[in-house]
């Protein structure tokens, strides 16, 4: 990849190299991570790009064009797709979800039961709106939250493992049988909301989600390596995926050469199903930084992106006040939530270098990105270790990147 001169764009090049030394010493040489890629850019121009470790468990060398499971970094892409439809007035943020997904018309909050007992009749309250899906205030959940009878019902139905089990309609039908965790709009809970949002994109557009992404986001942005399956002839580019084991080497959990991702799935998961490259996701981030446009391709309007990157938690709250999740891809303190992203609303509370208005997200295999509209910095980090909460690498990367910034725009 061609890099711009770091010093010209306000970075200390010597300090940027400390990132590579840190990742090698702390993560690759110790075996904590089998592989990693990092791409840092300013004003859309890459200033630092490095890759580490091996692509496969057989020590196949890491390659610049490696394909990674980006998991929940799919969510911002689905959110952008939905907002394209909002811009066309085909749907509105305050529309009830049941307008597009009528199976949810009778969905209500948990009122008792579950486990060995049937659920009590649901408490009917405010209906889920599309804005509730985008902000994770819908009352939906994930089975892996592992706290409640509702979570347990998700696990029993295998709703977290939807790619090969359900069609989109079957997925909605299964969800409609399980109560919500809470009345929509009253709390924040990391959830399958963006999977439901992706199905709404399909129903409103009349296209399968992967086809919609390709036609309206990926092709315009030149993201030719991002999709819900590995393209024919590209299997050798897919990285192996690993799971954390305390005190032991990571366990291989998805061998790339045999991965289900080499074949079409029944369901395109808008919440976590995409595979892609660091270079492709950099182009998506560059579009976000540039207010919805890149190289002449307008994806969304600037005011649409401003709306998405604003804090939509009630009363300007942060996630410490609203979240009931045991797990999220965001830190809670000083962090708000918009339409598909977390954002920094109080840098001091995060206890990390940051800019107010910076927005970001990550994926279950420890991938991450952020967009800083103040400093004009973007970062894409790729690796393949589940779960993403294993190591504080996102905080460490942010600290190292900002400590290499010699000229601030703030």
From TrEMBL:
<dbReference type="InterPro" id="IPR012338">
    <property type="entry name" value="Beta-lactam/transpept-like"/>
</dbReference>
<dbReference type="GO" id="GO:0016787">
    <property type="term" value="F:hydrolase activity"/>
</dbReference>
<keyword id="KW-0378">Hydrolase</keyword>
<protein>
    <submittedName>
        <fullName>Class A beta-lactamase-related serine hydrolase</fullName>
    </submittedName>
</protein>
<dbReference type="InterPro" id="IPR001466">
    <property type="entry name" value="Beta-lactam-related"/>
</dbReference>
<feature type="domain" description="Beta-lactamase-related">
    <location>
        <begin position="24"/>
        <end position="388"/>
    </location>
</feature>
<dbReference type="Pfam" id="PF00144">
    <property type="entry name" value="Beta-lactamase"/>
</dbReference>
<dbReference type="InterPro" id="IPR050789">
    <property type="entry name" value="Diverse_Enzym_Activities"/>
</dbReference>
């Amino acid at each position: 990849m061609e890099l711009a001169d770091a010093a010209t764009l306000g970075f200390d090049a010597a300090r940027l190299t400390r990132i590579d030394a840190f990742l090698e010493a702390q993560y690759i040489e110790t075996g904590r991570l089998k592989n990693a890629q990092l791409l840092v850019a300013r004003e859309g121009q890459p200033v630092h790009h490095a890759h580490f470790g091996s692509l496969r468990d057989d020590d196949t060398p890491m390659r610049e064009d490696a394909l990674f499971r980006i998991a929940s970094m799919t969510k911002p892409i689905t959110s952008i797709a939905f907002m394209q439809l909002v811009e066309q007035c085909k749907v509105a943020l305050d529309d009830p979800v049941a307008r597009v997904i009528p199976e949810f018309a009778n969905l209500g909050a948990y009122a008792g039961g579950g486990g060995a007992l049937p659920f009590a009749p649901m408490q009917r309250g405010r209906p889920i709106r599309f804005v509730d899906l985008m902000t994770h205030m819908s009352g939906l959940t994930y089975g892996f939250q592992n706290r409640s009878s509702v979570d347990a019902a998700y696990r029993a139905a295998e709703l977290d493992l939807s790619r090969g089990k359900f069609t989109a309609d079957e997925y909605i039908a299964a969800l409609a049988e399980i109560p919500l965790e809470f009345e929509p709009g009253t709390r924040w809970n990391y959830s399958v909301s963006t999977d439901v949002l992706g199905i709404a994109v399909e129903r409103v557009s009349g296209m399968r989600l992967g086809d919609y992404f390709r036609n309206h986001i990926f092709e315009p942005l030149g993201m030719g390596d991002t999709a819900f399956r590995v393209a024919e002839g590209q299997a050798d580019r897919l990285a192996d995926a690993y799971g954390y084991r305390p005190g032991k080497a990571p366990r291989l959990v998805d061998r790339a050469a045999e991965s289900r991702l080499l074949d079409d799935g029944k369901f395109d998961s808008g919440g976590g199903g995409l595979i892609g490259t660091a270079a492709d996701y950099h182009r998506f981030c560059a579009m976000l930084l540039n207010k919805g446009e890149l190289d002449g391709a307008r994806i969304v309007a600037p005011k649409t992106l401003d709306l998405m990157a604003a804090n939509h938690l009630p009363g300007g709250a942060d996630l410490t006040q609203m979240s009931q999740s045991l797990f999220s891809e965001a830190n809670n303190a000083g962090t708000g939530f918009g339409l598909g992203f977390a954002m920094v609303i109080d840098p001091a509370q995060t206890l990390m270098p940051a800019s107010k208005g910076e927005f970001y997200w990550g994926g279950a295999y420890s991938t991450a990105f952020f967009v800083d509209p103040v400093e004009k910095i973007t970062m894409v980090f790729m690796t393949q270790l589940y779960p993403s909460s294993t190591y504080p690498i996102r905080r460490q990367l942010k600290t190292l990147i900002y400590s290499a910034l010699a000229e601030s725009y703030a």
